[in-house]
């Protein structure tokens, strides 16, 4: 038998709009990690946690917990924003965590804590707060990270020195659940209310440099050209042809960055640099895709005489499957609250849950992003969908949280 | 019977190297129009013309003529350079004109004048000096052209006010012949010494804007994307496929400029802007190619849902066929001086001869560019090929020039 408690959607929406007011700019929010407005919002959040009977606790990285006593289920996300962010990215999951922990506390159980991680949006690093808590980066390493305006993480976190204590022992949590806006168009396009995340996809990325021969576009016959941009075109076309046989509808690949040199309309390009990024929930598939990409680069180089080099731009991101018990509890709740209007789906974006998976079982829930828009002042979600997400998460939490 | 005169290859090379010394920078030359060094070089050129018994005359646009008496054949090119130019681009044709006019004068005929046009390389406009002389641009219009450092043509030409007189009456010239380095790889690749130009090719250019939907590269499934760069790839591939059936080995088309927006590896491109430029000696073919390009843009737009717009970036350049009598005289001389080592070919680049064709019959001669390199400090031509070009041009001039 589940431990039942009553969430309050009106109170939830009221708190969500209050958090929005910190850094509100038109329909968007500007609340970067450790900015004055971010610190003020964390002070307010701490006061709301305290009012709910939770113990507010900030760790040295700026992660703010609202702690229940004893072993508990942790729910939350992040409340820092992009330089020009939407009002729901992160904030939604934080206030859901607050409301559900508060409602459970009011009902005398089960034990649910909440959290707002810090610098998920990467003012200094990327997912910095959960990175540090998960032990992927030490605090000392993070301290030397520098924001675009030159400030270090060490300097940034001085702004919360008055609130910060020790790190929180992750052993007290039985699991972590994060609700987030989808930040993609899948649910909105399908007119569905909820997505239960199966895995956070992995990603790989290479930067490809194609070197040909820069030449005058009037005096160089086609047969004597080594046109670097035509190399890019051929590679891109072959990628589309050959990856199609290998992928699922969830697999993606992107050429998002292209730089042609010297980039003049009357000059045959001598060099082109571009990125290929590919993402999938299955690491084997990422590996097979990489083999196809490598073979295409070799084939185009030998077929055209272009010199082609590929360089890894950053470490691979490994796919992170969600905990099956948490997935199943979320799926069961979604089926009850939004029958026929939910799906299981991967997360194409990284989230704090990916880091927290190193510490405990994790799960994630998505609500729709209108037209898939995120990282933009235009980001939004219908109020009904926010409430549906809250109900699904509360039901699953009631099932998952320790019964005390 | 031809009027015979003796050119002096040693004196020619000596003058060519002296002109190189004005603005010499490593193996290259920096001698932009109306710079101090350009003015000094034109003063020296005028003194060499005078020493040869020609009448130096600079017009208000900075074009410097060395005039024979009465009706004459005009030979020359330009002596201004690119910001980082080679030593032969233009200078070769100017000193060939000087040497041939001088040698003819020494022999008592025929009547040959020489010229160095101004601002061919486009510090202010493009082919500005011959543009003004040909009446395509008025001096008043040219005066408002502005260089990249903000100086107007009017301000620039003050530097030669002490030398400048009236415009020269083009009616005194029976034709114009320009020798130029090829600036392409055709002659060098074929190990040939001379190219006789059949036409200066025409060119058309469009700037294409592809608008899709900017999206997160992790969260947007392939099937829901409107990727502007993928539109560019598809257009470029179709261009290659469909233009092949329409063109000659001399036809060229180039995508030289590409700008992807926002140009980040994790973002599906929302917009891409690129240029398509195509050149051919036959205006009908240019027109048929444009119809193919337009139909591809329409087809890709309707097949992908991308919004595609094309805009003409500048006026068309019409192909300019060379005068057949001048072509034939050059071809005959080439066959005598360099049997089996010459060809008829189009000029893929624009030259002053294109403008001068509005005033009188014109012809052009090419010598090889080593590895096709031009507009670069590395530009060069073997000394033997320079001498061969001089001999061919002198023979043709002897046949073409008025016999007095």
Structure commentary:
The structure is a homodimer of 404-residue chains. The first copy, chain A, has 404 residues and is of the alpha+beta class. Helix content of chain A is 35%, strand content 23%. In chain A, strand 5, helix 3 and strand 6 form a beta-alpha-beta unit. The first copy, chain A, starts with 8 loop residues before the first helix and ends with a helix. In chain A, 57% of the residues are buried. The mean pLDDT of chain A is 95. At the A-B interface, strand 9, strand 10, helix 8, strand 11 and strand 12 of A face strand 9, strand 10, helix 8, strand 11 and strand 12 of B.
What descriptive keywords fit this protein?
18 strands; five-stranded antiparallel sheet; homodimer; 404 residues; elongated; nine-stranded mixed sheet; alpha+beta
Supply the number of helical segments of chain A.
12
* Structural class estimated from helices and strands of chain A: alpha+beta
Oligomeric state of the chains present here: homodimer
The main β sheet of chain A shows up as: 9 strands, mixed
What is the secondary structure topology, with strand pairs?
The structure is a homodimer of 404-residue chains.
Chain A: H1 9-21, E1 24-25, E2 28-29, H2 36-51, E3 55-58, E4 64-67, E5 72-78, H3 91-106, E6 112-117, H4 128-133, H5 139-143, H6 153-157, E7 173-181, H7 186-190, E8 194-200, E9 202-211, E10 215-216, H8 228-243, E11 252-254, E12 258-261, E13 267-268, E14 271-280, H9 283-304, E15 307-312, E16 320-321, H10 324-337, E17 342-347, H11 352-356, E18 362-367, H12 383-400
Parallel strand pairs in A: 5-6, 5-7, 7-18, 8-17
Antiparallel strand pairs in A: 1-2, 3-4, 4-6, 8-16, 8-18, 9-14, 9-15, 10-13, 11-14, 12-14
Helix pairs in contact in A: 1-3, 3-12, 8-9, 10-12
